[in-house]
């Protein structure tokens, strides 16, 4: 093979140059400024751009090896070729303020062959929120009716108590909308205020959740449907959720010390690796380590797991029981992580999460 003599000579020259520099010393990266403040900007003005300039104050070529930016900042480019001693390079950045109102302080990490090997730059500013459109303020949509949300969360609801919450709506049509509801769960009541919504008018869906009318525990979800002028438009469901748990907030320290306490021998069952279609069984053993009667309120299993009620649901101090669990791998492949929630009257651990984990082989 015939060598390209000019290319070989040029390569040797570069090697000699770099070798010479390395004998003289090392590269040194220097930024005149490591922070830039955009000041007050408007969200609607769009992306903000800034270039950080750096120089090599060392005695050998400098190479920027990596540039990493935090949320909202894009690295649009940087000097990738070696920067010779005395020369300068550039780090080009962009920050998009859309949907990010308020003050920001973002970091950008620069790694290089110079000293120091890592430099942190910062972009700062204060974004003035733009005026939101009605469609943005009311993202939920049922026909010509817009909603702040399609979900009403009642949060924690004590057994036997009633919680009320609401969601705001607006009529963006040019006609009066007569609002009513169907498929309402028996323990929930819903009212539209006002029932007849004028064009451009805002209103409320007010819902009440009566935990005394439902014999259940833990996180419970339901839905009901919105009727507009007596008809049922598409995608007209409102979702409701509540977490029914005992309220222990008024217990004294003495009462807490005398309370029941649930303790599991192991909260995780790892079945290892099994073939697709196989089932695995396990008993989660628990003990009442408290000083009064422990009551298991409910056992909830996730998709793929079947958990039976414990052998005993009421345990005196020192008594033990178990929860029988089956994982059926049919329909599952790869790594699995299934949860089982145990709800009890233990003030310190009303919700205990058990996990069934392992790998389901494809063959």
How would you describe this structure to a colleague?
- The structure is a single chain.
- A 5-stranded antiparallel β-sheet has the order 9-10-12-16-14.
- The radius of gyration is 32 Å and the shape is extended.
- With 363 residues, it is mostly beta strands.
- It has helices at residues 5-24, 134-137, 253-257, and strands at 29-31, 35-42, 48-56, 64-69, 73-78, 88-95, 102-112, 118-128, 140-142, 145-147, 151-157, 162-171, 177-182, 188-193, 196-197, 202-210, 218-228, 237-244, 262-264, 268-275, 279-288, 294-301, 305-307, 314-315, 320-328, 334-344, 351-361.
- It is 8% helix and 53% strand.
- The two termini are 52 Å apart.
- The chain folds into 3 domains: 5-128, Immunoglobulins (Immunoglobulin-like); 134-244, Immunoglobulins (Immunoglobulin-like); 253-361, Immunoglobulins (Immunoglobulin-like, Sandwich).
CATH superfamily of the largest domain: Immunoglobulins
Number of helices: 3
| Proportion in helices | under 10%
Order of strands across the main sheet? 9-10-12-16-14
Instruction: Provide the β-strand percentage band.
Output: over 45%
Quick check: average pLDDT? 91
Unreliable spans are 1-23
The helix-strand sequence is: HEEEEEEEEHEEEEEEEEEEHEEEEEEEEE
CATH architecture of the largest domain: Sandwich
Total beta-strand segments: 27
What general outline do the C-alpha atoms trace? Answer: extended
- Kindly name the structural category: mainly beta
How many domains make up the 3D coordinates? 3
Characterize the biggest β-sheet. 5 strands, antiparallel
Taking Cα atoms only, what radius of gyration do you get, to the nearest Å?
Answer: 32 Å
Query: Separation of termini?
Result: 52 Å
CATH topology of the largest domain: Immunoglobulin-like
CATH class of the largest domain: Mainly Beta
